[in-house]
């Protein structure tokens, strides 16, 4: 279940990277940040839907 936590952190960092790239008008960086956001965001959502939220032991 650590996978969903790691995917979630990468997704959050991709959001910040996308916003910063757009602010700096770095469209090449924004393209890759959006790709990262799309892929890891999709993996995060699907992992949560399929396996549920991670539980603390």
From TrEMBL:
Family matches, as Pfam families: DUF2759
InterPro entries with a match to the protein in the record: DUF2759
Protein name listed in UniProt: DUF2759 domain-containing protein
Species per Swiss-Prot/TrEMBL record: Metabacillus sediminilitoris
